[in-house]
Task: inverse folding
């Protein structure tokens, strides 16, 4: 008999639910999403699972596997201890819709609040910028919006601070815009106030869980925190501004 | 404007765009910029569409790296790659307009890899004479979709996420709206509109080994066919030469052509670079149809790799270079197959990738033969002829997405009153989508889908022959009947079994169209290879295959290929 694994899959909705056990034959190299597809195909056709590419490029199939947040399409079954049942449940920071599918619309609302890319001049044929100028921006733009960083963020998960903090995903987007060599908008007031960067206490959980290996804390959040501190809390700058030697801050670049 | 009754909700927009990949987003942005109210309806969350899986780049004759490049060369490459079955006007517009669409993306915030002098870098790709593909490592599609998404959400477009449309509605001969359901609740929804743009992608989920996601179920093809739209060239299906072949769970996942663009070498189990015998000039960067068939032959004749593919090796370029230019491929093989591509070869084989055929459209406006119904991207046909060049899809989405947006906007502006929705059509649609719940003991739609995938893979696949195609047409009738009486469990709330039961009907229409066109075309060309007719044929080089609904039957025929004007023909003469 071929190898088998038992999956305890959460089934339920807003009204509540429970884990249901499914036994799945295991092939070499199989991932958790394959197991969920087996369940749909042979055992439970109405199991709700959100997925698209099955190649870790779209960020749709986020779930918590044995309590650990990850992409189901990237979590290999041979890396799991299948001597005992494997639990699969929806990500916890967002309201459940059904089974493994959650309502992540809050993220799309946050995204809309960010002032989009606004270039210095519209004539792109004159633009010249270099690879080393955008290596960091490209790192941020690798984000596949799986929202696992939002799921594990303590500010969002434990402290119910969703209204006051946009979360790591959008700190990454803000950093990509702020560091774009051709962008001219100043988003620091937004980053400080509405985006709530001060609430992040740099525990780096977001960085650890990122399937794209974006160094969210070190490369995006900390530099943005430093910019906020330089702009708003540097006593020397404040004094020079106060007596009119430095101009009042009003834009990113002189 | 939105209204509700007990059965469904109704939304009213000047233009409704179906599908939020590159073509749909670009179309919605354009229609919205014309001052119209636009609904963008997509089956998934915004930003998850199949475009994110595009890897290698977007083709445009920017001439940033090779100054000799220009639209004429891009045009010629596209026609040659398409084996001259392309609609010449689409190929021309595409080559002429692609560079502007790239500059526009950059202006909207896309960050392409750079040349040493600070411009957009371009890489070589199969069938392109010059280095032409603007790219971001091997995640170009993600860059494109995120740029359009971020542009779109600030353009006043109303986005309907996780909403599937199943029926187009007409008022007389013209389009009047669309019917579908919210995936989350199963609640029905109607859009009343002056113009619809279909940007629903391809049909790849009808095949077993495919690089396509679950969304590729031919929805647009089927919805349009059902109200009388014409399809062409449905036999032309691109089998990408390089998909993963092992382990079983990842079979079919795309391995970007950029691996070959960056110098990757294909070898068989004897260590021979077999492309030497097939296309010694272009080698690994020959067109996809030719490379896929060459790989297929190596495997069939016993020169394949241990898991039924061939070897593709880029490791000689060094770990740093590979991780910089092909980071997704590095991670994909490392994490899913335990293969370090910086140290040794990967195993690859053909995978179903793209549908050249689709809805016949007007080259300028992208309108179908149904007034008010437009189509852009993979669901439309003509641009790529018998075989698409790598990189020409992303540029197609941008060029013709914009044109469809403009075309639909002009049509909507010229339409004074909203056309009316026919209640009887709505009632019929409700019955059709509810049916699977009415039956208790029917088969699971998953079982029918598995058999459809096996059938298409085995009998309408990379190499075809008369007897098998006949069998395929017959067996598809049986599958249609099984799909008609399959049943689903549970409620209408986020129910994938129900969704598949409905998607199956669309896949079956596209599959039948592919099989019937393949049976009709007695020659081999591009993405259509007949073992019994292995050569080009003079007659078949002058016609497109056509598909139309005729009562309950599918009518297959041909129509003459539009003739290229002499000034464009001249371009090919000069080359000789």
Result:
């Amino acid at each position: 008999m071929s190898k088998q694994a038992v999956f305890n899959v959460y089934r339920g909705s807003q009204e509540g639910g429970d884990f249901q056990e499914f036994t799945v034959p295991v092939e070499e190299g199989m991932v958790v999403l394959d197991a969920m597809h087996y369940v749909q195909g042979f055992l439970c056709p109405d199991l709700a699972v959100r997925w698209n590419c099955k190649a870790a490029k779209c960020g749709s199939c986020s779930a918590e596997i044995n309590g650990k947040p990850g992409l189901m399409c990237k979590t290999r079954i041979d890396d799991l201890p299948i001597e005992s049942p494997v639990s699969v449940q929806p990500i916890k920071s967002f309201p459940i819709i059904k089974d493994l599918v959650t309502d992540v619309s809050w993220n799309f609302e946050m995204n809309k609040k960010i002032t989009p890319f606004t270039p210095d001049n519209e004539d792109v044929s004159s633009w010249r910028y270099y690879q080393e100028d955008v290596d960091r921006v490209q790192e941020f733009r690798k984000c596949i919006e799986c929202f696992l960083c939002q799921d594990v963020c303590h500010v969002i998960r434990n402290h119910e601070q969703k209204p006051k903090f946009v979360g790591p995903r959008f700190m990454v987007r803000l950093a990509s815009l702020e560091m774009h060599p051709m962008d001219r908008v100043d988003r620091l007031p937004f980053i400080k106030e509405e985006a709530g960067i001060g609430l992040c206490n740099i525990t780096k959980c977001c960085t650890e869980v990122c399937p794209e290996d974006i160094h969210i804390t070190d490369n995006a959040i900390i530099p943005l925190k430093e910019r906020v501190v330089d702009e708003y809390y540097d006593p020397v700058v404040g004094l020079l501004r106060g007596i009119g030697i430095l101009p009042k801050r009003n834009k990113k670049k002189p | 404007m939105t209204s509700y009754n007990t059965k469904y909700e109704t939304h009213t927009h000047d233009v409704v765009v179906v599908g939020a990949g590159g073509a749909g987003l670009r179309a919605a942005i354009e229609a919205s910029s014309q001052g119209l109210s636009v609904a963008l309806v997509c089956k998934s969350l915004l930003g998850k569409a199949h475009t994110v899986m595009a890897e290698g780049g977007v083709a445009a004759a920017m001439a940033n790296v090779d100054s000799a490049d220009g639209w004429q060369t891009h045009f010629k490459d596209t026609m040659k790659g398409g084996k001259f079955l392309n609609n010449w006007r689409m190929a021309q517009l595409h080559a002429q307009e692609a560079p502007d669409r790239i500059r526009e993306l950059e202006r909207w915030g896309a960050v392409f890899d750079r040349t040493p002098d600070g411009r957009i870098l371009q890489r070589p790709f199969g069938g392109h004479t010059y280095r032409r593909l603007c790219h971001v490592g091997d995640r170009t599609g993600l860059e494109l979709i995120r740029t359009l998404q971020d542009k779109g959400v600030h353009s006043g477009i109303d986005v309907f996420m996780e909403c599937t449309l199943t029926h187009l509605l007409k008022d007389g001969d013209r389009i009047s709206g669309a019917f579908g359901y919210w995936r989350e609740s199963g609640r029905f929804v109607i859009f009343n509109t002056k113009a619809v743009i279909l940007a629903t992608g391809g049909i790849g989920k009808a095949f077993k080994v495919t690089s396509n996601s679950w969304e590729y179920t031919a929805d647009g093809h089927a919805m349009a066919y059902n109200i009388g739209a014409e399809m062409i060239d449905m036999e032309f299906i691109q089998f990408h030469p390089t998909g993963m072949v092992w382990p079983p769970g990842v079979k079919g996942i795309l391995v970007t052509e950029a691996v070959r663009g960056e110098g990757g070498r294909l070898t068989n189990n004897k260590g021979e670079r077999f492309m030497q015998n097939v296309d010694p000039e272009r080698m690994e960067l020959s067109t996809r149809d030719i490379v896929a068939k060459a790989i297929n032959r190596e495997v069939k004749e016993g020169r394949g790799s241990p898991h039924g593919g061939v070897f593709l090796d880029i490791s000689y370029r060094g770990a740093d270079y590979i991780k910089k230019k092909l980071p997704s491929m590095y991670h994909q093989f490392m994490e899913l197959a335990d293969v370090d591509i910086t140290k040794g070869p990967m195993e690859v084989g053909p995978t179903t990738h793209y549908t050249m055929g689709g809805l016949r459209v007007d080259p300028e406006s992208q309108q179908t033969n149904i007034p008010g119904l437009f189509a852009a991207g993979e669901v439309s046909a003509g641009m790529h002829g018998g075989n698409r060049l790598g990189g020409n899809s992303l540029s197609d989405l941008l060029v013709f997405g914009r044109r469809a947006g403009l075309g639909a906007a002009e049509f909507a502006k010229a339409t004074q009153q909203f056309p009316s929705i026919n209640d009887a059509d709505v009632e019929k649609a409700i019955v059709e989508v509810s049916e699977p719940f009415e039956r208790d003991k029917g088969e699971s739609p998953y079982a029918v889908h598995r058999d459809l995938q096996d059938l298409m893979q085995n009998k309408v696949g990379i190499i075809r022959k008369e007897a098998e195609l006949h069998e395929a047409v017959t067996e598809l009738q049986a599958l249609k009947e099984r799909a008609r009486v399959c049943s689903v469990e549970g409620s209408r709330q986020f129910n994938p079994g129900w969704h598949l039961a409905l998607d199956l009907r669309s896949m079956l229409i596209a599959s039948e169209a592919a099989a019937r066109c393949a049976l009709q075309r007695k020659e081999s060309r591009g993405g259509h290879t007949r073992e019994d007719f292995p050569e080009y044929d003079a007659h078949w080089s002058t016609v497109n295959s056509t598909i139309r609904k005729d009562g309950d039957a599918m009518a297959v025929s041909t129509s003459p290929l539009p003739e290229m004007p002499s000034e464009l023909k001249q371009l090919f003469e000069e080359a000789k």
